[in-house]
Amino acid sequence: MMKTTMFAAMATVLFPAWFASAPTVPAEEGHHADVRDIVGAAKISLRDAIAKALAAQPGRAVEADLEGEFEGEKLDVFFEVMVLTAGNELVQVTLDPQTGAVREREEADEDAHEIPGFQAALRHSERDLGQLVQAAESFVKGTAVSASLEYEGGMPVCDIAIVNTRCVIDVEIEGRAGHLIEVELRREAVEREHDEEAVEREHDEEGEHAEKGEEHEHAEKEEGHEGKKQGGEEEEEEEEEGEARPAPKPAVRVRKVG
Length: 258
What we know:
Structural class: alpha+beta
CATH topology of the largest domain: Nuclear Transport Factor 2, Chain: A
Shape: elongated
Number of strands: 8
Strand content: 25-35%
Number of helices: 5
Order of helices and strands: HHEEEEHHEEEEH
Largest sheet: 8 strands, antiparallel
Helix content: 25-40%
CATH class of the largest domain: Alpha Beta
């Protein structure tokens, strides 16, 4: 029996926009970017990327992803599509996210252990990867950024990630007829968003405290300056009073003579 969550009844659900916040750009070399921050950099869809990859490398697509990788301060965004050839070899095709032009094509020998699972999923699936992505996008509003075909529980399934504003929604589609199995909001994306908001609030509070401290210090300096000024004026007044005051008359002593 297919597992269906409460989200399945909300096929065209639009998750709340209160997760919206400014993206955080990591600085580590080779670090992968948050897909929510790079989805706007792609001018072609995930389905277009799959089609263009298959045009360059005949076979059947089993995985597709929108990726972003930092090289120093530069962010490189690209599509990666994994194709299983007729000779049962995995070939990874890298494409430009703007034009769909093929950047690189290489054998993915390190993923060879996944070939039996892909073969089983393709053998039982009646829809290709692009069609399954299209089905997911018809159920959930947003932009598909990754798709992976698997053989799970005796049937082919496709896991698709869809970005909607600052939400990442995982959609599971049955591979035979394209039925919706499950829709789930990715929790780590929500928690990361809350952590980023907490850090931003903390920085804002620190800035406010620093600003108040500077204002207080400035006020103290002003008070000290006024105090010195008043003290100097009082000294000048005392000096002027001293000059205006008449000098005391010398005491006269009378001596009696005998």
